[in-house]
Amino acid sequence: MGVYQDGIAKNAVDGKEVVAHLYEYTAQISIDPDLKVKSADRKIPPVQILFCLKEKNKKKLNSHRWFFNAFGPILNPNVCVLLDVGTRPGNTSIYHLWKAFDVNKNVAGACGEICAMTGRGCVNLFNPLVAAQNFEYKMSNILDKPMESVFGYISVLPGAFSAYRYKALLNDAKGNGPLASYFKGENQSGDMDNIFSANMYLAEDRILCFELVAKRGGQWTLKYVRSAIGETDVPDSVPEFISQRRRWLNGSFFAAIYALTHSINIWRSDHSMIRKLWFHLEFFYNFISIVFSWFALGNMYITFYFLTRSLADPAIDPFGNGWGDRIYEVMRYLYIFLMCTQFICSMGNRPQGSKATYTMSMIAFALIMGYMLFAATLITIRSLQAAFGSIDISQDAFEILQTVVKNAAFRDIIMSLLSTYGLYVIMSVLYMDPWHMITSFVQYLFMMPSYVNILNVYAFCNTHDVSWGTKGDTTVHSDLGVAKKGDGQVVELEMPVSSADINEAYDEAISELSHKFQEVHQSRSAATKQDDYYRGFRTRLVMAWIGSNGILVALVGSADIEKKLTMADGSNAYLAGIMWSVFGLSLFRFFGSTIYLFFSLFGH
């Protein structure tokens, strides 16, 4: 495009080290993915480009600091669009993002729909990892982002493709504000004594979103723009996928806690009373979601336990001759073995070094999920038969409905199915984007245990690692002298051969033995102390996480407690509570997403 010019850049100027190179050019050409050049004759408008090339790679936050703190005050832009390398916006996506700011003066930030790159002919979807992420991205863009946009606070505007109003980002006269909070992570990255903050700033864009809506004296809101589409490349290998989610999960978990504990800051803004109450309603929803994510490990095992154990009942056993009970025992021991494997690998191994172990674990969890789905399907069929078998055809429709609903097992299962799979189908059809249900839903379904049991375990077991993936060099100190290579292939060593030298060495050894040994107190360096503190926090957090989930499993799975949880109709009160809680959360997302869709029809 003519922006970069080779041979101009220098490493130093007048004895001063160069930290960045700046190129300015007005380009009027465009290059498509097939490397075909389009120029002014194709009505390509001229675009002025400032290209800042840093001398050293100091990560994304440092690049953003260059833009917002160095170029921003000079250019004084209205809207700033952030676009990651590897993300391809649609032809009109940037326009639609800008339009959101033009229509509503209170919009401080906006994001578009991030889609996974599926390749030509969707060939990438043959990779289960890519397909699962494609489904995850799609449902987030259909359920979560629209719901949050209705409230005015989106928990995260993806850094891959988002936009901000520059005026809303600026700090106040005292230097406090969104940008100050945003760049705090770069200033102290790797040196923070507070590991909570260190993990929190792994998701610095989440902190920025909260600081914008809670800005003192402001009325800023965040908006989701569905028509602004951006495709991004997603991890297609197990190690890369696990490493990426480690940073995402830890950053989002601690950033969410930060937002909840600082939710009172909303009251220092100039939002209306109704808007502030709306924010607190969303905060309550986020709190419930955090609680569910904390206990997801235990609830996944409890679901597995009750589903697979139900097939061990001779009255339901589809295999006969006690095979249902045998399969249940094998599955249970396999599940426990896999969980032990995850904690062992996560505490000491890198995903890149344990690729085979993690891959086999994902396959094994997929097999367990397949058996769980088989058990759930069989129980649903039996519940349907029991529910409709008790119907009196002489009753009217309302009485028949009452009879069916009184069947607890049928009622709970139907509510659970409607609140998950039914919600996915209904909202995908309403948004006229149902294809991921066909191409990616099955892969996501079989990956669900891995999301909980592999990704969460690795993330929590590595909270001490607050890096973005790069490590420092290891220095080896040598103080024993060297062995010099002489002529030929012989190594020359100077050996003590004279009697005087040998006797002197012997006398020194005897003298050393006669002296009393004094213990040398070793002091830890600051880096070692910080690393010990981080690892200690990690250990306590994992112990609390395992302990709380273990207590939950022990209580719900114990025979005495299970009897108390068994209601008169034979259903389990805890499972029923979980199912109805999921139904309530799903209903909340459904209404939020539907309201967004309704408003979008009128251009809001």
UniProtKB/TrEMBL annotation:
Described function: Polymerizes chitin, a structural polymer of the cell wall and septum, by transferring the sugar moiety of UDP-GlcNAc to the non-reducing end of the growing chitin polymer.
This protein's record includes keyword Transmembrane: yes
Keyword terms of this UniProt record: Cell membrane, Cell wall biogenesis/degradation, Glycosyltransferase, Membrane, Transferase, Transmembrane, Transmembrane helix
UniProt gene name: CHS2_1
Any one GO molecular function term: chitin synthase activity
CDD domains per UniProt: Chitin_synth_C (cd04190)
Membrane topology: Multi-pass membrane protein
Full protein name: Chitin synthase
